[in-house]
Design brief:
By secondary structure, the chain is an alpha/beta fold. The chain has 17 helices and 21 strands. The strands form 4 sheets. The chain has an 8-stranded parallel barrel, surrounded by 6 helices.
Length: 473
């Protein structure tokens, strides 16, 4: 099951694809990591999907990544009189923490942290920004505002507060229960919603430990302010363009996406670009030209992975969506402009031996036209350091840890393979040759580049590089 592309595909599991047969079809079509969205479904639903994916992993003899996405806090208005209120431009309205009447001067907003943090001049964005109001006055028990963008306000609509950092944990009671359940299942990644500051990552890390990789979802302006620290405290990052595109101007999103991708490459952390990538394929068998271009842009930026949400979870064409994304990625990576554009965003590696060895391996493999780099890695770091250079050479990441092999399903260019740990230098060379041949990355008489850390099995010690010729038959 070798993928003939470097960037990975993440697809969301939902009613449209939750059967073992559909999950297998999606995997064959090109999915590398499956997302379990804990905003929807029951624990029993997710347990069935997890079991089906682990069974599929055994059947296909290939590692499969599983990412659980926590819901996070949801800020919403309460219940309104008659279920809805028409709001007009310039209209004065009032939010109350315990509003019961549900009219324009008593809109329930049961979130005291908003009343504590918001200031006059700030904006509230309701229903994904379809309704916009500007705050004119704040007291402990009320928020006065003027409607700037009119619309029909109805029960339980979401509220975004882009101008404020809320004193709110990203982990609700539901999230904590979901997290404990997911970790017991054995998920490979945990995606944290509503990240505002570095302390949020520390709070989640205390619960997750090393049982799974921690993904920071960048979806709030305050997270952009602390981006470098948040990336440093995460194992991977998701550019969650849905909420982010509501809370910052839409014209700023493409540039911010590039900034986040580049910062993640600098930090040697995988980065996923997500939300509405092929959204029209929820109901149509083909994407718009703009959507195809959007996926290609993420690939040109150097993203490790691109993600499907409703397209695979609830759409009419889940398999076709994956096949289309796979074709777009392959066409983009094979285009004559790809190498120059992806290297334009190249970052300099740190002045340390492990980073220098990984960079040298990538450059050497390209110069001698080796078909593959075989990277022995106990934690995945060696493969990640090589992948950061985005070489025009396949990276065969060999690890003895099944958990690491699954997490590598999110890393650009990595074909992960689980194998017993090597015991000696000679064993390393023979294992590299055997793996390259068995996985059809190289043929007899070709040269491969082998990278490892010595002593073997010690994480973070990338210090050895060797060119090996595959014996002729």
């Amino acid at each position: 099951m070798r993928r003939h592309r470097r960037a990975k595909i993440v697809a969301t599991v939902g009613p449209a694809c939750a059967t073992p047969e559909m999950l297998k079809a999606l995997f064959i079509a090109g999915v590398d990591t499956f997302r379990l969205n804990f905003s929807h479904g029951t624990h029993e639903d997710h347990a069935r999907s997890h079991a089906a994916l682990r069974a599929l992993e055994q059947e296909m003899d290939r590692p499969i990544g599983i990412l659980m996405d926590l819901q996070g806090p949801k800020i919403r208005v309460g219940t309104l009189k008659d279920g809805k209120i028409p709001l007009t431009t310039g209209q004065a309205i009032r939010f109350l923490p315990g509003g019961a009447d549900g009219d324009v001067m008593s809109i329930p907003l049961p979130h005291p942290e908003i009343f504590a943090a918001i200031l006059p001049g700030d904006r509230l964005l309701i229903d994904d920004g379809r309704i916009r109001v500007r705050v004119t006055g704040v007291q402990s028990d009320r928020i006065d505002a003027l409607v700037e963008t009119a619309g029909l306000l109805s029960n339980r609509k979401g509220v975004n507060v882009p101008g404020a950092v809320l004193d709110l944990s990203p982990l609700t009671a539901k999230d904590r229960a979901d997290l404990a359940f997911g970790l017991d299942l054995g998920v490979d990644w945990v995606a944290l919603s509503f990240v505002q500051k570095p302390a949020d990552m520390l709070e989640a890390r205390a619960l997750v430990g090393d049982r799974a990789g921690l993904v920071a979802k960048i979806e709030r302006p305050s997270a952009l302010t602390h981006l470098e620290d948040i990336i440093r405290l995460s194992d991977a990052v998701m550019v969650a363009r849905g909420d982010l595109g509501v809370e910052i101007p839409p014209e700023d999103v493409p540039g911010r996406q590039k900034e986040i991708v580049r910062a993640c490459r600098l930090a040697v952390k995988p980065v996923i670009v997500a939300t509405q990538m092929l959204d029209s394929m929820v109901a149509a068998p083909a994407p718009t030209r703009a959507e195809a271009s959007d996926v290609a842009t993420a690939i040109y930026d150097g993203a490790d992975a691109v993600m499907l949400s409703a397209e695979s979870a609830s759409g009419t064409y889940p398999v076709e969506s994956v096949e289309m994304m796979d074709r777009i990625i392959r066409a983009t990576e094979q285009h004559k402009m790809y190498r120059s554009l992806v290297h334009a965003g190249q970052v300099e590696e740190e002045d340390t031996a492990p980073h220098a060895v990984a960079a040298a391996a990538a450059e050497l493999a390209e110069r001698i036209e080796a078909p593959a780099i075989v990277a022995f890695t106990s934690s995945g770091t060696t493969a990640a350091r090589i992948a950061r250079k985005r070489p025009a050479v396949s990276v065969l990441a060999v690890t003895p840890d099944v958990r690491v092999s699954r997490r590598l399903c999110l890393l650009w260019g990595a074909h992960s393979l689980r194998a017993e740990d090597v015991a000696s230098y000679e064993d390393m060379v023979q294992r590299a040759v055997d793996c390259a041949l068995a996985e059809e990355f190289a043929r007899p008489s070709e040269l491969i580049v082998v990278v490892a850390g010595i002593p073997f099995g010690k994480a973070g010690t990338t210090n050895n590089l060797r060119v090996v010729q595959i014996p002729s038959v």
